[in-house]
Amino acid sequence: MQCFIGGACSGRRKLVDERFPAAHWERLNPGEGVADWLGDLPEGVTLVVTGWAGWLTAAQAEVDDDVRASWRAMLEALAAQETRGLEVVLILDEMGRGIVPMAPEARRLRDLNGWLVQEVASRCSAVWYVRHGLARRLDLAQ
Description:
This protein has helices at residues 12-19, 35-38, 52-59, 64-81, 104-123; strands at 2-6, 24-27, 46-50, 87-93, 126-131, 134-138. With 142 residues, it is of the alpha/beta class.
């Protein structure tokens, strides 16, 4: 798995589209998981998954452990697809920079996103930070 992390209008989608021009794109919709469309993918395809922030926004009412269990199950299902020859690319939002939001729900979303990004990064073979259309590979802490 690889992930591309960046803020709004950072160029993540364009960069992924250029690097993986034949990729199959799926958007993670609020309240849904990945199982609905994983079985329909042919072997050897590159799968790009977006929509994580929207999914997290919808999941905010859940208890932290339940949200984490949900995304862990999705990440495990995605990682299992690599045994079928699928390359999985995740596009995630950077929300940890800048001013801390005043609204409690916005702070919670930022926290959930930070935990998700850490979990994703720990499972990926390559993590890319995208800013101004430029990507830099990040080294995982040992």
